[in-house]
Amino acid sequence: MNLNVKDTFNTELPADPILENTRRQVVQACYSFATPKSTSKPSIIHSSSELALDLGLNQDDLKSAEFQNIFTGNSVLPDTHPYAMCYGGHQFGNWAGQLGDGKSY
Length: 105
Known about the structure:
Layout lengths: L8 H4 L18 E3 L15 H7 L3 H4 L2 H7 L11 E9 L2 E7 L5
Antiparallel strand pairs: 1-2, 2-3
């Protein structure tokens, strides 16, 4: 599997300097580095053939154990740095302040 990784997001935007992965307010950063937690029985429910082509993947890649492990967070590609997003938004008609997805990319 040869994934075409373009690392512009976390090279052009500010990262959280605190590396501890805890629930907290993140200031002056767009994301926090976060190591994904492994799961015991990951499975792929659906994958997009169209997006796979954009990423440089083929149908065999989508069926591979390597794909499953990487896209479920059980493996991290070499020279990549998983991160969790922080953002602000409205929930139930009220400003919720800073939110975060808590997941790693």
